[in-house]
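User: I'll paste a sequence; please echo it back and then give the predicted structure.

Assistant: Echoing your sequence first, then the prediction.
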Amino acid sequence: QVQLVESGGGLVQAGGSLSLSCAASGRFFSSYNMGWFRQAPGKEREFVAAISWSGGRTYFADSVKGRFTISRDNAKNTVYLQMNSLKPEDTAVYYCAADKEGYYRGFPVLGPDEYDYWGQGTQVTVSS
C-alpha cells in the first residue's frame, strides 16, 4: 500500500505564495502519474494540477493556470505544488493523489476516480 503525506499548507494573505509537498512511500513512485486536488467546504473535490510519471508533462485547471506550478523529484519520491498569487477562492483542503497505472495510461488524468492512492490532505487558507 502506498502512503502519501502532504505538507506545507497554512494561512496566507491574498497575493501570497505557498508551496505544498507530497512524499510517497514505495518503490514505484517514478511510474505514477501524480495529481493535486482540492475540496472547499460544501463543494466537490476538484482537479487542480497533474504531472506525468516522467515529469515531462503537466496540466492545470483553468482556475490556477499561470499561478500554480507542479513538479516532482523521483529520486525523493516527492511531488510539489507551488502556488503563487493566491486568492481567497483557493481556500480548500489540498490532496495529492497517485495513479499507479501512470506509466501505461494517457495523460492528463483528471478524474478523482482514476487515482488509486490519496493523502490525508493539508489545509490552505487565503485571507482577503
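Residues 14 and 28 are 37 Å apart (CA to CA). The chain has no helices and eleven strands.
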